[in-house]
Design goal:
Distance between the termini: 26 Å
Shape: elongated
CATH superfamily: Electron Transport, Fmn-binding Protein, Chain A
Oligomer: single chain
Strand content: 35-45%
Helix content: 25-40%
Number of helices: 6
Number of domains: 1
Structural class: alpha+beta
Radius of gyration: 19 Å
């Protein structure tokens, strides 16, 4: 893989261990796939549960636009309710093959209808259908019935707009932690915290 290629959604060869940029968003842009690349890495989305306990699940990163991390979900979901109650979240992206991890913590807000529609259009056919059919009622029936319902909907609806339950969110970072591993030295972290004056950065043990 040459510099500028992508491995698991990470721009390979984009930075060195001693590279400590002032702006973490610039470093994130080198680690994360560029808009329009079609690469949607998985990430762990952590929210504050309605019962007060942390809640985590895996979602697709729809986009990093240079300022915010975008993801999409069903507005009826538990995570949507948790975000509505406490609009803060953390996402964790991991690239084991390159010994990299990025943790982004920040404030969450809904994206515009246009942004949400654009993200839906960019989804695979499977994920577009899933946005329509992935509800608790269908999940409760037997697998054969789920497959029959899926096949019928897929055949009857060749062109799909996003359902009204399709919801887009974006995280504006207040903290970003870049972990970089090594086979011949201790791993380390770069922790960035947003302040009124900009970003502070500190190194920490891995």
């Amino acid at each position: 893989m040459t510099d500028g290629g992508v491995v698991g959604g990470l721009a390979h060869g984009a930075d060195a261990d001693d590279d400590v940029p002032v702006d973490p968003l610039a470093l994130a842009a080198r680690w994360l796939p560029a808009p329009g690349s079609g690469v949607t890495p998985t990430m762990t989305l952590s929210t504050i549960g309605l019962d007060g306990y942390p809640a985590a699940r895996t979602v697709l990163m729809s986009l990093f636009d240079g300022r915010r991390v975008h993801f999409h979900t069903d507005s009826r979901s538990r995570k949507a309710a948790e975000i509505a109650a406490v609009p803060r979240a953390t996402v964790t992206l991991v690239w084991p093959e390159l010994a990299r991890q990025l943790v982004v913590t920040g404030d969450v807000e809904r994206v515009t209808d246009r942004e949400a529609r654009d993200a839906y259009t960019a989804r695979s056919r499977y994920l577009q259908v899933l946005a329509w059919l992935n509800d608790d009622d269908l999940a409760a029936v037997e697998a054969d019935h789920r497959r029959t319902r899926w096949a019928a909907f897929d055949a009857d609806c060749p062109d799909l707009d996003p359902p009204t339950t399709w919801a887009g969110y974006a995280i504006t970072p207040v903290r970003m932690v870049f972990w970089r591993g090594a086979a011949d030295a201790p791993s380390n972290r770069l922790r960035y915290d947003r302040t009124d004056a900009g970003w502070t950065v500190a190194r920490a043990a891995g």
